[in-house]
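Input record (Table S2, row 285):
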Amino acid sequence: MARIAYVNGMYVPRMLAAVHIEDRGYNFADGIYEVVCIRNGKLVDEERHALRLERSLRELRIAPPMGRKALSLVMRELMRRNRVANGILYLQISRGVARREHAFPNPAVPSSLVMTISPMKLPTPESLRTGVSVITIPDIRWKRRDIKSVSLLPNILGKQQAKEAGAYEAWMVDEEGMVTEGTSSNAWIVTKAGALVTRKADEMILNGITRLAVLDAVAEGTLTFEERAFTVAEAREAREAFLTSTTSFVKPIVTLDGKPVGEGTVGPVVESLVRSYFRHIANQP
Ligand SMILES: Cc1ncc(COP(=O)(O)O)c(C=O)c1O
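Output record (pyridoxal-5'-phosphate complex):
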């Protein structure tokens, strides 16, 4: 079956879908994006993704191409046309097409909206029983990582470095030696003392939607939780470590920079958070 993309008001065969060469997303990475998980025909945490999308647009002063309700209808129509029950919806909005000039187009031009859907085998509770390896690298990004910008060069270079090191992810480390986040995921540890720790969501990290779902589960439980930055040294001594993202869900980490985390096996805290996360995604409206 032909896959269908949505490009600026039109549903087109994905093979033929294209944007203008002077789209500011293409020329300047002047745009934002969202990745939403589709599970059993439902969009996971749609409302939170919509809120983050609107926030990213506001912060960059990009006009929303349509209202929230219309956007939701397009998402559903694209799911229907692609008949994908499990996979990923990718949505990108740029400041539009204009002659290449750094300042915003004046008068403003319509924002561009592109949406695609890709089938994907989603993680299962069984697949998440195998932990992954992570390396640490310097965080060389700009200082507005809270905006889900399509400008991802440092993340791309970091992920490639991880791949070449045989690792699944790279945790980026700020100038104070504190872990910020992964190149496409949020970072968590369970300290030697048993506290669950993840960095506060300020301008230095992206506030992951999966992170928020895990925080909800934590708020309902009895775990000791600290929302703060942690050092690489603390992570190396941690009992457990894991990462969270829309495509990875809640993924245990068993080695950090080539050394085992805790016993080098999947620990009880991450195991229980994986279970909570599956309950959460099973309960989507
Ligand atoms: C830099 C970064 N941090 C965190 C995340 C996790 O966010 P989410 O849980 O919304 O997928 C992502 C996801 O792509 C990311 O790119």
